[in-house]
Design a protein that fits this description.
Elements: H1 4-14, H2 19-32, H3 38-50, H4 52-62, H5 67-81, H6 86-97, H7 100-110, H8 115-125
Helix pairs in contact: 1-2, 1-4, 2-4, 2-5, 4-5, 4-7, 5-7, 5-8, 7-8
């Protein structure tokens, strides 16, 4: 492991007002945290421990009008929070505490005509 998850979180935190950086970072987090095998579950936990949930929610709040940030941010929240074990429930609670539910709802409302945001937003709501 090269520390990629932590570097993505660091980039989100270092460039909060650069929408293109935020979009690429939340996409990367969604991709890295996809899956349900043991390795994916470990990545989800590492992402949460690194502050990814809070960083993704902040990116979505900062760039509400950027559909790509919203779609990929919802995907990242969905993938990081997915899991029906105690750790998954804890990640979901952490997301709720970070304002992720409000960020997802805002994304869905702001991008009613964007099927990608609607799909990933509704998917994220199932896990947050």
């Amino acid at each position: 492991d090269a520390g990629g998850i932590e570097l993505v979180v660091a980039a989100l935190q270092a460039h909060p007002q650069v929408a293109d950086v935020q979009q690429e970072c939340v996409w990367a987090m969604a991709s890295v945290c996809a899956g349900t095998d043991a390795a994916a579950l470990a990545r989800k936990q590492r992402a949460a421990a690194a502050g990814a949930i809070e960083a993704v929610a902040a990116a979505m709040q900062a760039h509400l009008q950027v559909a790509g940030v919203q779609e990929q941010g919802c995907g990242a929240l969905r993938n990081v929070c997915a899991g029906d074990d105690a750790a998954g429930r804890a990640r979901s609670q952490r997301a709720a505490d970070a304002g992720a539910i409000e960020a997802i709802v805002a994304a869905l409302q702001a991008h009613l005509q964007d099927a990608g945001v609607q799909q990933d937003g509704c998917g994220a709501m199932g896990y947050v």
